[in-house]
Amino acid sequence: MLLGYNTNGFPFHRLEDAIEIIAECGYRCVALTLDVHHLDPFRSTAAEVAAVGACLRRHKLACVIETGSRYLLDPRRKHRPTLLDDDPARRLEFLGLAARIGRDLGASALSYWSGARPEGSHNDAELLERLARGVEKVETMAAAAGLKAALEPEPGMFLEKMADYDRLSATLGFQPGLTMDIGHLRCVESRPEHEYLLEYRQVLYNLQLDDMMPGRHQHLFFGQGQVDFARAFQALREIGYAGPACVELSDAGRNAVETAARAKAFLDRALSTQP
Question: Rounded to two decimals, what is the model's pTM?
């Protein structure tokens, strides 16, 4: 695995400083959340993107693009518009720009999600068709940029559980690439995390690491929730997963440096005990 850290955990740092600190902690990958303060895709120049790429190369860091910024598209509505809205054009524009930035940075994957159910009387069948159309477009944009599209099931969103992903796959006629968040699996699923890692190994392109409690969508530091990391890491070893595996602790920004270092120490200990 390419252990990494998500820049959304460094909300009060300049991006280049966050990248340098992530490298100093010993991580090998950066999950770059494009946001208003971190390489805003609507405003960043080619020179600014190139400077971030040079920074990543200087520190020998791989990269994956994350698109979970809250108010980048609409300053008054979190995460809107989504692929499910009546007019998803702004979301698709953002994801297209993100794919091109990922191409320029040499990123391996573009991570995204469905969005929550929009207001109104849309039924599940209609929303599933909308999502399928959006996913097909994102897969095409990512492939054109040389990235793998990685759809993330997210608590509270229309595509929340792996059963929702399976329904989408049936609609599409293929399994789209996946981002899996270990904590999300503990939060919403009924089976242990490792079973899903084993089951979806062929389409697992991106992994997020955090702890969580069942039924509560709050990203916790390792050991504060109920994720079975020993068994999850054993499963990842069994499937030979070699992609990004990035810590996501977006609420830890006030202690970003210390949290990133503590997280790396936990992961090193956990992985050192694996056979």
Answer: 0.96
